[in-house]
Amino acid sequence: MTLRRTVKETWGTSRPATYTNINTHWWDLSQVYGSDExxxxxxxxxxxxxxxxxxxxxxxxxxxxxxxxxxxxxWWAGLSLMHNIWTKEHNLVCDMFKKSNPTWIDQEIFDxxxxxxxxxxxxxxTVEWTPALLADDILQTAMDANWYxxxxxxxxxxxxxxxxxxxxxxxxxxxxQPDFSGVAFAHSEEFVSVYRMHSLLRDNITIRSxxxxxxxxxxxxxxxxxxxxxxxxxxxxxxxxxxxTFGTDNPGALILGNYPAEMMSLNKPGAxxxxxxxxxxxxxxxxxxxxxxxxxxxxxxxxPAQTMDDISDDPxxxxxxxxxxxxxxxxxxxxxxxxxxSPRATGFAFSNTQFQAFILAASRRLMTDRFFTTDYTAxxxxxxxxxxxxxxxxxxxxxxxxxxxxxxxxTVDNAFKPWVVPS
Length: 423
What we know:
- The protein is an all-alpha fold.
- Helix content is 43%, strand content 3%.
- Strands 1-2 form a two-stranded antiparallel ribbon.
- α3 packs across α4 and α5 crosses α6.
- The relative contact order is 0.13.
- The mean pLDDT is 94.
């Protein structure tokens, strides 16, 4: 298997190697809007701030068979679904601003709609997606505090006389002061590593009807729902049925031995070789100098494993680790150790080790962006825009854009939890 090395940034020899991306890694919804002006321009209609959609209301399809959107590499049906929903949501926000600000030109509508849509996406990720993946009451409180703060409404008008750290807890990070911690506009390579979650992918997706909750005859394995195949899922079925399917079915488990088999023999269009993505995930961590499991734990002041039995209480997982690494616990890779690790905190879909980097970045994504801190104001968003964000969750987003699912999505308190299927 041959693949390219990651291109390093050239900062000079005195600094550790860093790696950039062809797509921005910030919370700016650039995956929908594009990361450069050339791509960005091709996605906009030029009318009333809206993004281009096809006659059927979905994203257009390019000559490569992929959705025309801000970033469509490594494409699959789940990404197509989300990009379509957020493009639809942007256009609805444009309608709202057009109605209330009839003199605004296309650029004004677009800029405000992008701010509102992006912030709503960030809010949903913070207070809904993360607590669904880490389903623990304390974690839910912590993520709510990140966005809203812990202060009751009747105390929010007292002057801010606190240190920044206390103010972030009391009032929330959003609308506060930025904090770069000495490193502007960067995420750690370890954050990328703990987000290696290919095991969430299902081996098969079978479409359910949103009318009666029953499975249809349309079923797709990974090779059929990735890349060009995403269109056969999205456009080969009612869009409402596809969204309903993703809403009602569980993802794969982030555990050892559950890496999708087809991802280990992936035929990516344009790649000269079949790719084993499990091997690539491990290789990238090693190539970029990410610490292995035990060293990672030491650097985060966690107790390192003395033997393989300290990593997991599952005998099968311990045996699998020894089959690859022998008894050399120091050689266990971060991804492998993280998937094997048990027990886990109550409700956690991934390991406590991975959580250390994940939770730090969850706050950093907000506190290092002026549009979530000092400029999260009516001057930039409008009061109408701030109210729209405040009054919306992902259930509302789905209900607005796929109205046939309005009842289904409200069978749960969080749209990222499996929806109730009629018996």
